[in-house]
Write a structure and sequence with these properties.
By secondary structure, the chain is an alpha/beta fold. It has helices at residues 23-32, 35-41, 46-53, 92-105, 134-137, 155-163, 183-186, 189-193, 207-219, 236-243, 302-308, and strands at residues 57-66, 72-78, 83-89, 106-115, 144-151, 171-174, 196-202, 226-231, 248-251, 255-259, 265-272, 281-289. It has three domains: 18-55; 57-194; 225-329, 2-Layer Sandwich (TATA-Binding Protein), CATH 3.30.310. 27% of the residues lie in helices and 26% in strands. The longest helix has 14 residues, at 92-105. The protein starts with 22 loop residues before the first helix and ends in a 21-residue tail after the last helix.
């Protein structure tokens, strides 16, 4: 804003100091600011901080990565695709302050949260940024994200973050750090209501497939609900068929189809392997229409396996007619 000066005393004089502007006008100005400008403005005064914190801001994507030393790398991308904010913070106090602000005002189309040094499976969880800090644990604000990717986070971190999200999460990707019983993850409302979710790698939690299928049966999950996982154990398909033997609709070398309590929907378990690799056993569990014919099944499993493993898929990357290796039933 600029001042209006002149010789006539009858001409209006506009006060130009920010502190003299009414709060409702300040809010209009704040809505025009990008994240970095808001982040700076909120440090000028308590009143400004309150105004800035009251205004949500939308991002097409956000990426938060921490390491074992309480550092934080932040990249936020605005709705128009431009980088709205990108910084690497080392000061612990600033890390927590920024995290809380992002969590309070951010509305994300896509949000990815990762631990540092994720190429190592034995990352230590000491000095954990999320669940070993009392300030964050006591923080009650919730963020909004449509699609969330939690990479290389242990079970405690995953549960903590899911509990800090508003309703409306559609897809959830979980990485390779989950071990032990996962009942407390399955019972999370975001997991139960997600349109799609996956766990990139599990070693010996075959019963997880049974529990998810039963949860879908009990909740009468919507058609299209999907879960994917990669196991080391290849007997999952046959054990699934035995576990739900009283609900069997059909069993093949690639798939098991079972009835739910609703006559209009079934649950389908698919087993897929690419390039004759017998080490990683990929499974997809879906709620499907009871009217779906076997001829309508997706015959090429590479696309969903690539997605599960976060690998870009291109048509023709592998032979869709490969002779897969399946467990016998």
């Amino acid at each position: 804003m600029s001042s209006n000066t002149g010789k006539s005393s009858k001409e209006p004089i506009f006060k130009t100091n920010w502190c003299d502007i009414p709060a409702e006008i300040k809010l209009k100005c704040i809505r025009k600011l990008e994240f970095k400008e808001r982040w700076s403005l909120r440090d000028t005064a308590k009143a400004e901080r309150s105004l800035v914190d009251s205004q949500k801001i939308k991002f097409s994507s956000g990426y938060l990565m921490s390491n074992n030393y309480s550092c934080l790398s932040v990249t936020l991308v605005s709705e128009n695709g431009n980088i709205a904010f990108s910084e690497y913070l080392k000061n612990e106090k600033n890390v927590f302050k920024l995290l809380k602000f992002i969590w309070k005002v951010g509305i994300f189309e896509n949000l990815k949260i990762s631990r540092g040094y994720i190429i190592f499976d034995d990352v230590h969880d000491s000095d954990d940024l999320f669940t070993e800090n009392a300030e964050l644990l006591s923080y009650t604000e919730k963020s909004t994200a449509k699609n969330i990717d939690l990479e290389a986070l242990n079970k405690e971190n995953v549960i903590f973050i899911l509990q800090k999200l508003e309703n409306g999460v559609e897809t959830i990707k979980l990485g390779r750090k989950l071990n032990g019983p996962l009942d407390d993850i399955i019972s999370n409302s975001h997991i139960q209501n997600a349109r799609y979710w996956h766990i990139q790698k599990l070693r010996d939690r075959t019963d997880l497939i049974f529990k998810i299928a039963q949860m879908w049966i009990d909740k009468n999950a919507e058609i299209g609900s999907t879960f994917q996982v990669c196991f080391d154990y290849y007997k999952t398909r046959s054990e699934f068929a035995k576990h739900f033997s009283d609900r069997i609709v059909s069993v093949t070398h690639e798939r098991v189809r079972i009835r739910t309590n609703s006559p209009d929907r079934h649950i389908l378990l698919e087993h897929g392997i690419i390039d004759h690799c017998h080490i990683s056993q990929n499974f997809r569990l879906m709620v499907i229409s009871a009217e779906m014919k076997e001829s309508e099944y997706e015959k090429n499993c590479e696309k969903w396996i690539y997605y599960l493993n976060s690998v870009p898929y291109k048509e023709g990357d592998s032979d869709a007619e490969s002779d897969y290796y399946y467990d016998d039933y």
